[in-house]
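Hi U.,

Before I forget, here's the chain from the pilot set. I'm dumping it here mostly so it's searchable later in email.
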Amino acid sequence: MLYYSGHTRRIGDVDDGSTVTDFLPAERARGITIQSAAITFEWPPALAGLQSTPEDIGGDTSETQPRSRFTHNINLIDTPGHADFTFEVRRSLRILDGAVCILDGVAGVEAQTEQVWAQAAEWNIPRIVYINKLDRDGAAFGRTVREIGSRLGGWPAVCQIPWFEGGKGRFTGVGDVINLEGLLYENGGDGKEIKRYRLSQLEQEYPDMAQELRSARAALVELLSEHDDQLVEAFFEAEEDHLNITPSQLLDSLRRCLLAPHSTIIPVFAGASFRNIGVQPLLDAVTNLLPSPLERPDPDVSVGSSSGGLSQLIRGDLEFRKDTNTAAKLKKKGQTSDPLAIGNALQGCALAFKVVNDPRKGVLVYIRVYSGSIDRNGLLYNTNLQSSERATTLLRMYANESVPVQALHAGEIGVIAGSKYARTGDTLISYSGNKATPPEPLNKLQLRPIKVPPPVFFAALEPNSLREEKDMHEKLALLLREDPSLQVSQDEDTGQTQISGMGELHLEIAADRLVNDLKAKARMGKIAIGYRETLPEASMSVTKVLEGERAATKGKAGCTALVEPLPDDEDTSLTVPDDAFSYEQDGNLVVVETPTLDEKGRPLTSDDVALPANLTVPEIQTAYLNGALAALSRGPSYSFPLRNTKVTLTLRPEEHIFGSETTYASLTAAARLATNAAFRDATKNTASILMEPVMNVDISVDEASLGNVIQDISSSRGGQIVSLGDHEDGASASDNSTKRIDVSKIYAPKDPFESGSSRSGEDHHRLNLQRTVKARVPLKEMVGYLKHLRSMTGGRGTFVMSVDRFEKITGPREKAVIQELLGGFV
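Structure:
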């Protein structure tokens, strides 16, 4: 596309790592797209646009010229195809006006295609399909067209058919169904030399191709007639001859059907980009069929508790819900909440959809302007962060190159360089006046945000040394600003920094960027499961007295502790005496008893010792509690935190209080010592019982893979199936349309080596209804599960999970886990 538009002088190749938009070293090494890249070019090139005439495409001079006869600015975003980078696609789709979905002519509609197609449907993005790689052995255009109907839930409108040499030979060009001509490309050429054959010429020289072109034109007119009344009228005016419909009438009809809300018409084009076949007609289709920014639905905005369209706000038609506090503030400041005045104050509105840390240019914030203009050096207000900063440098991006501009106007995609605060999904506005903040409620204006999918894969991240830890976290913050689908958390149990992402490749690339691009001195390790311990039996009552200086604690104090396991199903509130202090945390219960003292710390009998003046009963209870919690954080057998454990601490002033020597800190230390001693007593005969986190897992698979997934979860992974369901509840519009498509009614040209049996099999292609498996599975078994699930389901399975509870490990699994924890020595 860039070569034919005159933007580059050579055609890049993915295999050679010479493409313009795949410029990251990791992208060139792997031959895949990892991050989306933006580039702006003109089609047709300005010079060609001035010279073009209707006769060039064989059209009547009296008919309306197609849009592709006039030069258009195209903002192109090249997005990844790998499932691990689904968020990169999601945030790009959010700001686009139309999409070209590229399919592999050999593989057909792949799993990730279905995912991205559904994401585009969320935003109601008009889409056209380009079936690529038709030059490869095994390419099947017809089969792929039928798969579009069965898997993507739309009616494929075949606008081009492949042209094979002699019907079954080399792929040499395409048949243009709209203009009724054959486009023959030079073998081994750069694609600029195209020989055009009118239908009359094809009938003489290539009769089979002419016959297929007639069939394709009839099928296209019939399909569009079912969805567009204007084409039906044109069909009757053309004396009910499919060939008499003009190209402009067909293009207008296709465009109306494509831009209709929840459209089920999918225009399909053919080509082989590696052989430079079919790219220019695809560019014409982009300008002819896909909408301009002005033709897209009004962007959704919210202003405080009110919501509506952006143009409604600008016109003053947006109704604000009454907020008495805001109204009072405005009145006090002498401002007006008149909707028209608010709309007039808004000069520009943009959405930040991507942040990149460029080693040369610094932080680049990619924005899509939805209204007005964003001017260089203008003050921009971030309504999400409630902060202002100036757009000192505005750029128009050409992949990793850029050109400075003075302003970015509505519909354009550009970059703000050097922004300190903006993140993915932030709304940026410029407004009239010179105040630091915009008038209320304009400061609450927000465009519809970008959803971040939940991460499903985890790995540990460790600095090379403690000195590097701060630097690692600073570099991580930069990485998270770039890619919000990564999440970082600190595991309280293991002390590890854990990084979560969409898949193994996603985390591999994140680690690569962190170490090689951001120069963080860190390494990624395996995830450490946060196990828990629980006691095998109750302990005897143990008393410990802290004397002298121990663990940096001066003073003298004592404590009596008793520990016992809590049954899983017991209501802990029933086991606490009425007059005792109790505290529950992480499945543990701590009880502090002061049997010989009243609430004010006075002895109940004359023999008891009263509390010293510097301590109160609540302070003693808190000190004992902190000591017990410290002991519970490290188990006696494997050093994992304890769970399902009851700790009873008893204070007897005559034994545990030593006047002014007894301090808050010494009481805490005494409680910890006593609790630890009780733990050792409870495990003197038998080691602690290990508990593991069990996850609630929702696995989404198609009907065909359901049996394999259930078998794997219940047998191989020790999981428990909770329920099986389908996706009928809350099914999207695309799911409903999938059920309406009758594959046998879809027109598709016969593939060169297609047999009758293979075609009939396609015609009766069973719909892949989605099913949801709800299960409870140990977390250990879910590490690395995503890759296994994709291999079992042909790449179509996805899952999300959350912690359900901790359960005891029993039998062979307990022995295996203990052996692993002890490094193979038991």
